[in-house]
Structure formats: C-alpha cells, structure tokens
Amino acid sequence: MPYRDRRRQRYAEDPVFREKILAVNQAYRKLHKEKFNRLRRLRDRRGESLKTRYGISIAQYNAMLEEQGGVCAICGEQPEEERLCVDHSHATGKIRGLLCRRCNSGLGCYNDELRLTMGASAYLRRALLRHAAEEDGFPISELLR
Asked: At residue 139, does pLDDT exceed 70?
C-alpha cells in the first residue's frame, strides 16, 4: 500500500493522529494567513471559485447580480467592499440567489430550516408589537387575550 494511502487510513482510524494533523494544519494556516487570503482574493477575481464551488461562470454570476439589481435578495442592500455570496441549497446544491454575507450567515445559522426562520420572524414581530403597545401605554395583557 502506498504511503499516502496508509496515511489516509491512519487519519481515518486514529483519532490521536487526526488531532495532531489538524493542529499542524491549523498552525500552518495561521502562520500563512495573509498568503492564503491573497490567493483566495486572486481566485475570486478570476471567478475560479465560482466554477469549482457552484458550477457557474463569472458571466452567469454577473447576470444574476444584474437581475437582482446589484443588491442582496433578502435585505436589499448593496455590499460596500465585497461581492454578494452565492446562496445555495445544501440539500440539492441548487443556487437560490445572491445574498450579502450577513443574510447568508443568518440563513446558515438556521440550517436552511423554514420552520426556524419563520419562528425567528414571528418572534421579532411579537417583540415589536409588545414594544409599540408599551410605548402607547396599552397594557400588554390586553393584547394577549
């Protein structure tokens, strides 16, 4: 068995070895963080990451961006420094649209579960209603009947 295959097998089977390798890799990435960031930005400018991650070209990305008016599909804001993220379903891999980093992270925190995002939305609506009622001097117990 070639060395690389033995190493992969050991990595898969030995948790102590795996932790050691992960720690070494993490230290290396931390030490060379600027180099990795520079390479990532260069790849992003060329559109290589779009092709490898999502299977779309920079032209397709730009067409989606134009269709959305250059803004996030959720909050409607235009990112200041970075481009919009490609939002996709982790279950199907299909692209849903372009989102700012904040909105994309928010969806990711809820693992694309509609029940959770709707629950969060309902929670915020209740809090806004409660706050507005309290400001008007209306007892909150009257609202909850």
From this structure: no
